[in-house]
Design goal:
322 residues; alpha/beta; 7-stranded parallel beta sheet; two-stranded parallel ribbon; 9 helices; 13 strands; binds nicotinamide-adenine-dinucleotide; binds uridine-5'-diphosphate
Length: 322
C-alpha cells in the first residue's frame, strides 16, 4: 500500500504542476499546491478542489515559506519565452530566490527536493543530441538569459546544498513538453499552431522552420518526475526528461495542419534572437537509472491536445488571442 505523503508542489496551478498534483492525489498523497498565479490559473486545478487532500496556498516563492511536508517539487517559474521575458528580473529572482527558499525548507525538514530544470541550460547546443555531461552554450547577456542562467544558478544551488548539507536532491532537465492545459496565449509553438489552425488563422513559422525540437507528451513527463523523486537517494540527476524523436518546426506545422484541416496557410515570421537551432535529449541516463522512456507518440499526444483546445475555444470568454 502507498503510504500517504504530504507533498508540496510549487507552481502547482501551472501546466505541468496541475498534472503533477492530479497524479499525486490519484495515488493517495496529500498535496499542497503553492502558486502566485503569475502564469498559472485556478481553472487548471478547480477540478481538484473538492478533494480533501488537496490544499492551495497563494504565495510567491521568492519569499520564505514555513510548512511541514515530506517532499517538495519545485516547478514555480514562468516557462515560455513570452512570459519569462515580460519581467526578466523577476524571472531570475524566481529561479534563484525560489531555489534558495525551497532548499532552506528541505534542509530544515531533511526531505527530498525536486527541481524542474530545463534543456535551456544547454543553450544553443554545439553537441547533438544533448547528454547531461554537456555543459552548454549559453549567452549570459541575451534576452533568454534570465531564464537560462536563472535555471543554471538554481542547479548550482541544488548541488551545493547537497555537497554542503547532504540534502537529497532530484534535478530533472525538462525538454519541450506539450498537452492539455498549456496556455493558449503563451507563444509556445505547439499551442500557437493548434490555436491558429483551429481558428483558421495563418500558422506562424519563425525563421525558415528548419530549427528542430523534440516534443514530450505531458503524461510521460509526469511519470518521469515521480520516478525520479522515488528513486534511491544516490540518484540526484541531472537527468534529461524528454522525447528523443526530433521534428523540424516546419514538419510540426504540417502535421498539425493535416490533423486539423481548415483554411490555414503557413506564413514566415522573423526568428527571435538566440533561438536554439536544434534540440533533442539523450535519454540514456533516464532509461538506465529510472527505467523511464516516453510512451506517447506525437500523433497521439497532439490529438489529445487538439481536443483540449477545441473544447476550450468553444467556451465563452476562454482563450484570448495569441
Ligand atoms: P507554467 O507557466 O504553466 O507554470 C509555472 C507556474 O509557476 C505557474 O502556475 C505560475 O503561476 C507559477 N509561478 C511563477 N512564478 C511564481 C512565484 N514567484 N511563486 C509561486 N508560483 C509562481 O509553466 P510549466 O510549463 O508548467 O512549467 C513548470 C516548470 O517546468 C517551470 O519551472 C519550467 O521552467 C519547467 N519547464 C517546463 C518546460 C515545458 O516544456 N513546459 C520545459 C522545461 C522546463
Ligand atoms: N527558508 C524557508 N523555509 C524554511 C526554512 C528556510 O523559506 O522552512 C528560507 C529561509 O528564509 C532562508 C532560505 O530558506 O532564507 C535558505 O535557508 P538556509 O537555512 O539554507 O539559509 P539561512 O537561513 O542559514 O540563510
Ligand atoms: N516557433 C514558431 N512559431 C511560433 C512559436 C514558436 O516557429 O508561433 C518556434 C520558435 O522560434 C522555436 C520553436 O518554435 O524555434 C519552439 O519554440 P517554443 O517557444 O515553443 O520553445 P523553445 O524555443 O523554448 O524551445
Amino acid at each position: 500500500m502507498h503510504l500517504r505523503k504530504r507533498v508540496l508542489v510549487t507552481g502547482g496551478a501551472g501546466f505541468l504542476g496541475s498534472h503533477l498534483c492530479e497524479r499525486l492525489l490519484a495515488r493517495g498523497d496529500h498535496v499542497i499546491c503553492l502558486d502566485n498565479y503569475f502564469t498559472g490559473t485556478r481553472d487548471n486545478i478547480v477540478h481538484l478542489l473538492a478533494n480533501p487532500y488537496f490544499e492551495v496556498v497563494r504565495h510567491d516563492i521568492t519569499f520564505p515559506i514555513y510548512l511541514e511536508v515530506d517532499q517538495i517539487y519545485n516547478l514555480a517559474c514562468p516557462a515560455s519565452p513570452v512570459h519569462y521575458q515580460r519581467d526578466p528580473v523577476q524571472t531570475t529572482k524566481v529561479s534563484v530566490h525560489g531555489a534558495i527558499n525551497v532548499l532552506g525548507l528541505a534542509k530544515r525538514l531533511r526531505i527530498p527536493v525536486f527541481q524542474a530544470s530545463t534543456s535551456e541550460v544547454y543553450g544553443d547546443p554545439s553537441v547533438h543530441p544533448q547528454p547531461e555531461e554537456y555543459w552548454g552554450n549559453v549567452n549570459p547577456i541575451g534576452v533568454r538569459s534570465c531564464y537560462d542562467e536563472g535555471k543554471r544558478c538554481a542547479e548550482t544551488l541544488f548541488f551545493d546544498y547537497r555537497r554542503q548539507h547532504n540534502l537529497q536532491i532530484k534535478v530533472a532537465r525538462i525538454f519541450n513538453t506539450y498537452g492539455p492545459r498549456m496556455h493558449p496565449n503563451d507563444g509556445r509553438v505547439v499551442s500557437n499552431f493548434i490555436v491558429q489552425a483551429l481558428r483558421g488563422e495563418p500558422i506562424t513559422i519563425y525563421g525558415d522552420g528548419s530549427q528542430t525540437r523534440s516534443f514530450c507528451y505531458v503524461s510521460d513527463l509526469i511519470d518521469g518526475f515521480v520516478r525520479l523523486m522515488e528513486s534511491p537517494p544516490e540518484i540526484t540527476g541531472p537527468v534529461n526528461l524528454g522525447n528523443p524523436v526530433e521534428f523540424s518546426i516546419r514538419e510540426l506545422a504540417e502535421i498539425i495542419l493535416a490533423e486539423i484541416g481548415g483554411p490555414s496557410r503557413i506564413v514566415a515570421r522573423p526568428l527571435p534572437s538566440d533561438d536554439p537551432r536544434q534540440r533533442k535529449p539523450n535519454i540514456e541516463r533516464a532509461r538506465e537509472s529510472l527505467g523511464w522512456q516516453p510512451k506517447v507518440g506525437l500523433a497521439e499526444g497532439l490529438r489529445a491536445t487538439i481536443d483540449y483546445f477545441d473544447q476550450a475555444l468553444r467556451r465563452p470568454g476562454e482563450l484570448v488571442a495569441t
